[in-house]
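User: Second chain of the day. Same drill as before.
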Amino acid sequence: MISTHRSALLALAVSLSLPALSGEAATATSALQAAAAACAKGDVKTALGLFTDDAAIRLSIEGMPDELFEGRSWVRVFWEIHSRCCKLDVGAAKDGAVALTLANERFRAVGAPQVTFRARVELRGEEISTLQLTLDPSEAPTVSRAILSNNRAVVLRFSDKVNRKEEMSAIDECVASEYTQHSIMPVGPGVPGLREFYARFRKAFPDLHYTVDDTRTDGDVVAQRITVRMTHRGEFMGVAPTGNPVTVTKMDFWRLMSGKVVEHWDAVDRLGLLQQIGVVPKLSEWQASPGFEGFR
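Assistant: Same format as last time:
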């Protein structure tokens, strides 16, 4: 049973839908019309209510990995991103797909004031269980190149504002609300865990300084090589401050969807960190290669 509010939206959509549509095609078009109405208002809650709890939205752009928003929390993330300054026009249905024209903040960020999709909808009752969005192939080369550049810019902005300038507001700007962390460092789950980690780490190493040595982009992943320099001036993981200078090298891998970081992996010289704060003895026979730029 759908809500009275959602029923009203669907009824309005039916009245606006194109003639010569019937059955499932008309219902799919009506559901998209209702989503368009919610999107125009930036109404994430109403848009989310049009979908089943286990729904999935797949956004396909030739030249890029598909973006899969699966499950209620991820469908919410999709609408959080794509309903910002949104104008979604629902066009004709043909060959089982509905034409959509979308203008929003996300695509303007990659230099595309307006984009065209073919939408395929699967329904369970009156709710959407699957929404497949495929960008017009003629637009894909330009948009996919712009997405690569934008992904790189998002990660560099995070590195500059959060890592270097301590502007924690940039976490919300760059990171999706359903962010997943795969770090070897003691970082809790989600965005709250990320905020809490930075707060604790900066208490232990208040002069923390990040240098981005290299940034590479491939598909939906941005890779960085980073050197971190700091001084151990506060308690860290039960270790009292030593005053020791510390240099740590690390690799970061960030996966993005629709311009937001959704996953992060890293490889950190944790052994070198522990040796420099006196937890682990340095092995005299272990000599790093001549080109190594971290702690020796």
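The chain has two domains: 4-138, 150-276.

User: Great, on to the next one.
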